[in-house]
Specification:
CATH architecture: 3-Layer(aba) Sandwich
Radius of gyration: 19 Å
Number of domains: 1
Length: 244
């Protein structure tokens, strides 16, 4: 019988080559032309932009707001302007709109409760001149696709061949949305393309020291952003630097 032994080197040392790879991989992601997206899809009507949780409570105020997330708003706004000018008008905003007694509040502080400012679309997107064309799907968990309203929106506006997913958080709601879209496509042999532009997604950061002070779980934003982008790529989600 072979005895099981623990690795002698710390995880940080054993994983250093992979972390170096991730950093190089993300910085070298290719850009993608919106014209190429349209040409490869065949029709602007078969392209959907899925914006996840770009709301006040994650961008500007509230216990889960993050300047890292707010920092992607200019890039997301620019992408939406570029897409709209190219004729892409199918945009859905999947957004936390929690019940006051949401079960999720056992894992995270109460946030983005229905009827509060936190649950409202970030003003940077609300102020777009075509924002009245956006569909809003309210969700009560980190998953977009388990909400019947999301599936109803797809049924009424699709079918789609290409999804562009933007928003937050890379390792939570973005991962859930992009992976669910891609895995459903794989399961049903739909051949759908799911694209995540790195400059239009982000996650929050809580250092180990801060987490200990406030009684929360630490959350390395840089590491998790990189790891979950790579995980999506390994499962068929197309990760690009930007859509230009």
């Amino acid at each position: 019988m072979t005895a099981t032994t623990h690795a002698s080197a710390p995880l940080s040392q054993r994983s250093a080559p992979y972390i170096d790879f991730l950093e190089s991989w993300v910085t070298s992601l290719p850009d993608l032309s919106i014209d190429d997206v349209i040409e490869s899809t065949g029709s602007v009507d078969q392209i959907a932009i899925v914006s996840v949780d770009l709301i006040v409570g994650f961008c500007h105020s509230g216990p889960l707001s993050s300047p890292r997330v707010a920092g992607i708003l200019p890039a997301v706004r620019a992408l939406m302007e570029r897409a709209h000018a190219a004729g892409i008008t199918k945009v859905v905003l999947s957004q936390d709109t929690h019940r006051p007694d949401a079960e999720e509040f056992g894992s995270y502080p109460a946030h983005c409760v229905a009827g509060t400012e936190e649950s409202q679309t970030a003003p940077e997107l609300r102020s777009l001149p075509f924002a009245d064309q956006f569909a809003v799907v309210e969700k009560n968990s980190i998953s977009s696709l388990i909400e019947p309203a999301f599936l109803e929106w797809e049924a009424a506006n699709g079918p789609f061949a290409t999804y562009i997913v933007v928003g937050d958080c890379t390792d939570l709601c973005i991962y859930q949305a992009a992976m669910a879209l891609k895995l459903r496509s794989v399961d049903q042999h739909l051949g759908q393309r799911v694209i995540v532009p790195e400059n239009c997604v982000q996650t929050y950061d809580i250092t180990v020291e801060t987490a200990a002070q406030i009684g929360a779980q630490p959350h390395d934003g840089d590491l998790l952003h990189h790891v979950f982008l790579h995980s999506m790529a390994q499962n068929g989600v197309e990760i690009v630097g930007r859509i230009v």
